[in-house]
From TrEMBL:
Keywords: Cytoplasm, Methyltransferase, rRNA processing, S-adenosyl-L-methionine, Transferase. Its EC number is 2.1.1.174. It comes from Pseudomonas mangiferae. It is found in: Cytoplasm. This is Ribosomal RNA large subunit methyltransferase G. The gene is rlmG. GO terms for cellular component: cytoplasm. It comes from the Bacteria. GO terms for molecular function: 23S rRNA (guanine(1835)-N(2))-methyltransferase activity; nucleic acid binding. Specifically methylates the guanine in position 1835 (m2G1835) of 23S rRNA. It catalyses: guanosine(1835) in 23S rRNA + S-adenosyl-L-methionine = N(2)-methylguanosine(1835) in 23S rRNA + S-adenosyl-L-homocysteine + H(+). SUPFAM superfamilies: S-adenosyl-L-methionine-dependent methyltransferases.
Length: 373
């Protein structure tokens, strides 16, 4: 297991979810570059430091004890990784964690930013920094060159101040912004779009997948949702803005719904949409590690449009994990309904977990599958 070694700390870090023989590590050269740069510049114990988008806690774990640290991001899995790595390294002093659905309270002397995959999230985070920076504050963003679009520097320039790009080190780069007075920005988020069937309007916060319109996988899934199953217990797993769970609830007034996602902004969006469309109808809407905390045998139906990446890493690991969680949470005879790209081969994967798998519908690109426990 690679060890993160910088002048600030030597840490044994793991990714979350952890898997056996994982070829990926819980930090990269951009984390090292940020930490080395910060050590060279110096930190005071009285400094208030904000860390944004710390994927597995490498930055926050390295900095606790040197300053007052607040960590904020949109991933509940990242939060769990931070807690796990604090414990793994015997770090009793935990940073304050603020979900991206809330605004961290400054003033902050230093802001460290890992550039996220979704630039809309970065833009919203930079907008929220307005009025939260102490005099003389420093704002330092970092990313690997292959994941560092020019637009990231443009956003820093627009919302913070002039940007100086560092030299590249180990294929990583820093963008150092000098804060200047800026007018109070108006956030373009959340955005909204309409769906035709069912006829609903959906709100979407900055980090939502397909924020500007319904994604084509969900569009293929919606006409084929199961109907009229009575008082069943249903989970929308990886719910995003809640469209699958809400559409199902509209067609099944007796169903009890749980909507879960690892994105705090997704859960925030889904909760707002549920209230706007279904009013006071009860539902459990929460950020979680999939169905990891769902009791065994407590669901009759799971609906899922699974993700195919974690941060910048593409693969089916998270989808496979969600399928396993669904199987464990379902009653005997319960069903998992999913939509997926044809080329991902989910039919074969589901056959290894469920006693029956059948194709419900198909388009040239997507398949809708039903797996029975």
């Amino acid at each position: 297991m690679p060890i993160l070694t910088t002048p600030l700390a030597t840490l044994d870090l793991v990714r979350h979810p952890e898997r056996a023989d994982d070829p990926l590590q819980a930090f990269d050269a951009a984390d090292e570059y940020l930490l080395n740069h910060l050590h060279h510049q110096g930190l005071a114990p009285t400094d208030r430091l904000l860390v944004l988008n710390d994927a597995f806690g490498a930055l926050a774990c390295s900095l606790v004890g040197y300053a007052t640290v607040t960590s904020s991001g949109d991933s509940h899995l990242a939060y769990l990784a931070l807690q796990r790595n604090l414990a793994r390294n015997g770090l009793a002093q935990a940073p304050t964690f603020v979900p991206a659905s809330e605004t961290p309270a400054g003033p902050f002397d230093t802001v460290l930013i890992r550039i996220p995959k979704t630039l809309a999230l970065l833009e919203e985070q930079l907008i929220r920094l307005h009025g939260q920076l102490a005099p003389g504050a420093r704002v330092i963003a970092a990313g690997m060159l292959k994941h560092l679009p020019r637009a990231a520097g443009d956003l820093l320039e627009r919302y913070v101040g002039p940007v100086q790009a560092s030299l590249a080190v180990k294929k990583a780069r820093l963008l150092i912004a000098t804060p200047q007075a800026r007018p109070m920005p108006v956030s373009p988020y959340p955005t909204r779009y309409r769906v035709e069937q069912p006829d609903i309007e959906l709100l979407n916060h900055a980090n939502l997948f397909c924020r500007e319109g319904l994604d084509i996988g969900t569009r293929a899934f919606l006409p084929h949702l199961p109907r009229a199953l009575g008082a069943v217990r249903v989970a929308d797993l990886g719910c995003g803005n809640g469209v699958l769970g809400i559409a199902y609830a509209l067609g099944n007034p007796q169903a009890a719904l749980t909507l879960v996602d690892e994105s705090y902004m997704a859960v925030q969006s889904a909760a707002a949409n549920w209230r706007a469309i279904l009013g006071e109808r009860p539902a459990a809407i929460q950020a979680d590690d999939g169905l990891a905390t769902q009791p065994a045998g407590s669901l009759d139906l799971v609906l899922c449009n699974p993700p195919f990446h974690q941060q910048q890493v593409v693969g089916d690991f998270l989808a496979w994990r969600m399928f396993t969680q669904a199987r464990d949470a379902l009653v005997q005879g319960g069903e998992l309904w999913i939509v997926g790209n044809r080329h991902l081969g989910y039919h074969a994967k589901l056959k290894r977990l469920f006693r029956g798998v059948e194709q419900v519908a198909a388009t040239p690109k997507f398949v809708v599958l039903k797996a029975t426990r």
